User: What shape does this take?
Amino acid sequence: MKEDIKFKFCHKMPERSFHFKGRKFPLCARCTGVFLGYSTLSLFHLGVITPNLLLITVFSLPMLIDSLTQSYGVRESNNILRLMTGFMFGASQAALIVLIGNFLVSLISIL
Assistant: This one.
């Protein structure tokens, strides 16, 4: 039997994960969204979208609000919302990576 992919940071709860043809995804919906959001890295790197701190903050807040309100029992989220907010958070992390990279390159070019 094939061993599942190990992702230590994800709870992988079946009710918070997507299923396809009777098989559960290896990650929960939110972590799936985060990994899909990482795919936007090239858009930021190539300058299609200019990364800035406002964009990073605005894209990070929905997941933080969704996860914290769910954690504290204020409301129950759903997998589509988890996927979308996770995607936005992953994209914000990609933008942050490019922003920091551009800053470091500008420091090096000064030398």
Notes: The chain has four helices and two strands. The helical segments are 29-38, 41-45, 53-71, 79-110. The two ends are 55 Å apart (CA to CA). Strands lie at 19-20, 23-24.
